[in-house]
Amino acid sequence: MTPHHALLPEDTTQVLAACGQEVAGLEHVSVQAHALPGPIIGIYVRAATQQAAVEAAEETWLRARIAHPRLLPWELLGAEVPELPPLPFRPQPDTLPEEHHLD
Hints:
25% of the residues lie in helices and 13% in strands. The protein has 103 residues and is of the alpha+beta class. The chain has one domain: Alpha-Beta Plaits (2-Layer Sandwich). It has a two-stranded antiparallel sheet with strand order 1-2. Strand 1 (26-32) and strand 2 form a beta hairpin. Helix 1 (12-19) packs across helix 2. The termini are far apart.
């Protein structure tokens, strides 16, 4: 993100959460405004694919920039998605030995 040596507005977390309410799967927003070399924004979503998760995070950021022009100087430099199992995790019966079935 940019601009150089500037801090994100203090309410960035709340702005992103509010603007992301219409984005499918939004779970949580986290902002590390003082991270180096620049701020880090975490937009956590539930999505069927990694691509869908990236698109939801990007859409949330774009909605926030449009709704709150003070964010316009900041640009998204990248989006990453960790691969996590669906929650809550519960082994499926057909993957367990017969003596460990959950029935």
